[in-house]
Design goal:
The complex is a heterodimer.
Chain A (H helix, E strand, L loop, with lengths): L3 E3 H12 L5 E5 L3 H4 L2 H6 L4 E3 L4 H13 L3 E7 H4 L3 H9 L6 E5 L17 H6 L5 E3 L4 H10 L7 E4 L4 E3 L15 E5 L3 E5 L3 H14 L4 E5 L2 E3 L3 H11 L2 E8 L4 H11 L5 E6 L9 H8 L3 H13 L2
Parallel strand pairs in A: 2-3, 2-4, 4-5, 5-7, 6-7, 10-11, 10-13, 13-14
Antiparallel strand pairs in A: 1-8, 6-12, 9-11
Helix pairs in contact in A: 1-8, 4-6, 9-13
Chain B lengths: L5 H4 L5 H22 L5 H16 L15 E4 L5 H10 L40 H15 L5 E6 L6 H12 L5 E7 L8 H4 L5 H7 L3 E6 L3 H13 L5 E6 L22 H10 L6
Parallel strand pairs in B: 1-2, 2-3, 3-5, 4-5
Classes of the chains: A alpha/beta, B alpha/beta.
The structure holds thiamine diphosphate and magnesium ion.
């Protein structure tokens, strides 16, 4: 791990790099400084559309642009994208318009702003929309690469980024970052740990701790929650026979939910879900939030042992 | 146990006393944000004169019985401006000054955004803009159903009124002739990223509210005597909803924060903090 950076910065940088494609337009709802779309706005004001504090307006303006041949990237905080959920459902997903929505400041790791700003359900709700790709990258590099791939992606998408810095994981491993493909970090045979976002680096630390106890984990960064890399899940089940999911998101409906559905429909195996335990967040520093919610390295390691015991 | 309504405290409309309260609250606002090294000073400093006048001369509430069912409701719809609300609640005795040190701290009553589940005297869990006016409408309709004279007051930002939901509530409040619903818009000209003029022009707010059937009053949001008079006028309207459009300065009282979008959501550093304490008359220069 070399250094730290925020995934939202990766989003901003990607927009800037995409600017040479003149189909690309950027939409903001008065949070461009925070989501980092302002990098694009500063360089290309003529292709940036300020929607005021009006998320519903932003989503359907984006839909109109998409229907007219543009490739719109719209962003606000993850929580405020939810204000426009039905616009996303009926006006974007249903007609299959290629609008790319980014929700920054996702999860409880967002910190002291408190529960009103901490989206813990975004991955779950967007995952229910037919044909919508849902991603939650772990580091700045993968966020930049995945966002860039969206420009030619055949469907609408939702990407969650985070406010605070997380360890850089993919410098020099850029080739491995592909929409829809989980990234394998280790290939231990005792337990599979499938994580997304801030929890990927926690899972890697948990795997190290487990290794000291002679337990060898397969760790996967499942940055794409939908479509889920089912073949990879099957391979982990085959190798390890049990799994843990880890996400800064409700245990209901997100990565844990997606993996549970896959296991139920394919090869049932014991699954322990590490995530926000069906409650709202509160104000606390980012790492304190992970402690309050049971999302620490230790929580992941404990879950791995529980999963193994159920095998 | 029941104390006098706070409005009685200001019955003499002692303007100097209200101004001194507002000054003390400004000091607390800057302290809170400085201590947390996060939060929203700009919109707290712009709203505070209005809040102090409202609690000091109009609202029928009981600091020692914050959940008194027949109290007037106050909804801070621009819930990020929570330091202003907390400073006010402490100054009027709803919470302690010790509580102010919990702003944005784990387990504290002073959550990042005002939250009715965490803080006594807070009537709505805010933080998502554009929600408070509808909530206030519901509170006002409930009062009507109860046969109560209580009122609901809602404080919004000028950026906030860009949300479409505000206008759904505005239309409905007029449709139902909700005379006990009062709105205040803190017109400070700045939102999150930049000036409103840059982000989304508001056009003629007075004409817009009037066209929705509301009684419209305007005031200089930092002239205490004018505010007290304007609030009384808005309070007296009872045949339709009424709004007070207050011209304010974002960051009012701290020179480097005034009219500066950078201090919408940023904390002062130690030097800036010292400067603010001097400018607010808390320590000698
Ligand atoms: C629905 C929603 N969208 C976006 C935000 C993020 N946000 C917080 S404060 C703010 C600007 C508010 O400006 P204004 O209403 O003028 O408040 P004030 O100037 O009084 O601080 C924004 C965009 C939010 N809290 N809620
Ligand atoms: Mg404003």
């Amino acid at each position: 791990m070399s250094g730290m950076a925020a995934t939202r910065d990766g989003y901003g940088k990607a927009l800037l790099e995409l600017a040479e494609d003149d189909r690309v337009v950027v939409l903001e709802a008065d949070l461009g400084k925070s989501t980092k779309s302002q990098l694009f706005r500063k360089a290309h004001p003529e292709r940036t559309i300020s929607c005021g504090i009006g998320e519903q307006n932003m989503l359907l303006t984006a839909a109109g642009l998409a229907a007219s041949g543009y490739v719109p990237f719209a962003s606000t905080f993850a929580i405020f994208t939810e204000r426009a959920f039905e616009q996303m459902r009926n006006g974007v997903a249903r007609p299959g318009l290629r609008v790319h929505l980014c929700g920054s400041h996702g999860g409880t790791h967002t910190g002291t702003d408190g529960s009103s700003a901490q989206s813990i359900e975004d991955l779950a709700i967007y995952r229910t929309l037919p044909g919508v790709t849902v991603m939650h990258p772990a580091d700045e590099v993968s966020t930049r690469l995945l966002t860039k791939q969206l420009v030619d992606h055949p469907s609408p998408s939702y990407t969650r980024t985070a406010r605070n810095k997380t360890p850089l994981l993919y410098e020099g491993r850029e080739d491995e970052v592909i929409i829809g493909k989980g990234i394998v970090h280790s290939e231990g045979a005792d337990v599979g740990i499938v994580a997304c976002g801030v929890m990927v680096s926690k899972a890697l630390e948990a795997a190290e701790a487990l290794a000291n106890e002679g337990i060898h984990a397969t760790v996967v960064d499942m940055h794409t929650i939908k479509p889920l890399d089912g073949a990879l899940i099957d391979a982990i089940v085959e190798r390890c026979g049990c799994l843990v999911t880890a996400e800064d998101h409700s245990v209901i409906g997100g990565l844990g939910g997606a993996v549970a559905e896959h296991l139920a429909a394919n090869t049932p195996a014991p699954l322990e879900r590490v995530g926000v335990p069906d409650r709202f967040g509160e104000s606390a520093e980012a790492e304190e939030m992970l402690e309050i919610m049971g999302l620490t390295v230790q929580d992941v390691a404990n879950a791995a042992k529980r999963a193994m015991a159920r095998r | 146990m029941k104390g006098p309504p706070t409005a009685l405290l200001g019955m003499s409309h002692d303007i100097a006393m209200l101004e001194e309260r507002a000054r003390r609250c400004r000091v607390d606002i800057v302290r809170m944000v400085h201590r947390a090294q996060a939060g929203h000073p700009g919109g707290s400093l712009s709203e505070i004169d209005l809040l102090v006048a409202l609690y000091g001369t109009v609202l029928n509430v009981r600091p020692n019985e914050p959940s008194w069912p027949d109290r007037d409701r106050f909804v801070l719809s621009k819930g990020h401006a929570s330091p202003g609300m907390y400073a006010l609640l402490a100054d009027f005795g709803f919470i302690s000054h010790e509580d102010l040190t919990t702003y944005r701290v784990k387990g504290g009553v002073c959550q990042g955004h005002v939250d009715m589940k965490w803080c006594p005297g807070v009537d709505f869990s805010a933080g998502s803009l554009g929600m408070g006016l509808s909530f206030g409408l519901g509170c006002a309709l409930a009062a009507r159903l109860d046969g109560s004279q209580r009122k609901a007051w809602v404080m919004m930002g000028d950026g906030e009124v860009q949300e479409g939901s505000v206008w759904e509530a505005a239309m409905a409040a007029h449709h139902h002739s909700v005379g006990n619903l009062k709105a205040i818009v803190d017109v400070n000209g700045i939102q999150n990223d930049d000036f409103c003029e840059v982000q989304m022009q508001l056009n003629d707010l007075a004409a817009t509210w009037a066209s929705f059937g509301w009684s419209v009053t305007t005031v200089d949001g930092h002239n205490m005597a004018d505010i007290v008079e304007a609030l009384a006028k808005v309070d007296a309207v009872n045949d339709r909803p009424a709004v007070l459009l207050a011209s304010t300065v974002k960051g009012k009282g701290v020179s480097y924060m005034e009219n500066n979008p950078a201090f919408h959501g940023a904390a002062p550093n130690d030097d800036q903090f010292e400067t603010a304490m001097v400018e607010l008359g808390e320590v000698a220069a």
